Amino acid sequence: MKIVIAPDSFKGCMTAAEAAAAIEEGMRRALPDADYVAVPMADGGEGTVQALVNATGGRLVPAVVTGPLGTPVAAVYGILGDRDGGRTAVIEMASAAGLGLVDIASRDARITTTFGVGELIRDALDHGATSFIIGLGGSATNDGGAGMMQALGVHLRDAHGEELGHGGAALARLASIDMARLDPRVKAATFTLASDVTNPLTGPCGASAVFGPQKGADAASVAELDAALRHWAAVIGDTLGRDVERAPGAGAAGGLGAGFLACTDARMRPGVAVVAEAVGLAARSYGAELCVTGEGRIDGQTGYGKTPSGVARIVKDTAPGCTVVALAGSVGPGADTLQDHGIDAVFGIMAGPASLAQAVGEGHANLVRTAENVARLVSAMQMPHHHASRPAIST
Known about the structure:
alpha/beta, five-stranded parallel β-sheet, 13 strands, Rossmann fold
């Protein structure tokens, strides 16, 4: 029996590779002779760099860059090993500008910057990269990608000819965009934006309204930032001739999607599809009878571009008869709709009520135990059932 194990990370608890190892450990207890194929996954967010580096035999590159609040942070990106002779870089924007880099008390979407993302791109260019995969997830920013563009040589000036400072609020003062000093290597490079977000840049479904509050924006700040991004889009349209305001995905990562669409010929693709292609999920799923995927939380939103539903679709395209089971740290409303997205069954791994710290601490053991139980069920269903003959009943 061929079993594909393709989970995402269980955030704050296990990386995708650790989760895959735990699932295999549990399943081997009940199905020791199965053919296991571990394919750690991601969807453009946390874990994307590690998943792609591991799958291609690449390497991690450390870099100290400007963090979301303008102070230095230690970041890392990947150079893929078996793709284009090491000329493809994979970057998680959150490594330089992620919400996890800003404590709750310091979150302010008006001032956070993507400058460090541009610095990572520049560093990768210095290492010979000509192709980029950018994971747009987990941002602390709402600057429309302005900081990233400035780091790559673009000048953004106010009416007095002064360079704009960091943050999305500053975009309200933008008067001109000067592309003359954009690093020429950027124009020659290709960019793939990996994201499961299709939000436009502005409006009620835009970057500020939907994602701003989790980054520290109150109602007044959301309105201020949305207006600033509308102005940003208008100046981009007037100066560069590109309509980024309504483009699907332009609102990803606080509008970083719009910044890339403004200064590059970037392609926006579902993150799970980008990762699956790079790790060869489809080819490695050929002939599979069972696939086990999962992530920290599974609910109705999982069907819209999250790793488990993406894995289910790709695996079933290759192996139509494959059963797909998803394991989750928590199961939320709407999980029962996932059968429509190719997931045949969902199991929570918690043994009972627990604090967050307890859930994280026991995550590995809970995942091993649940995977073992899934495997025991599969094993029992494979065994022939011999029904003892019933004695005749005299009347």
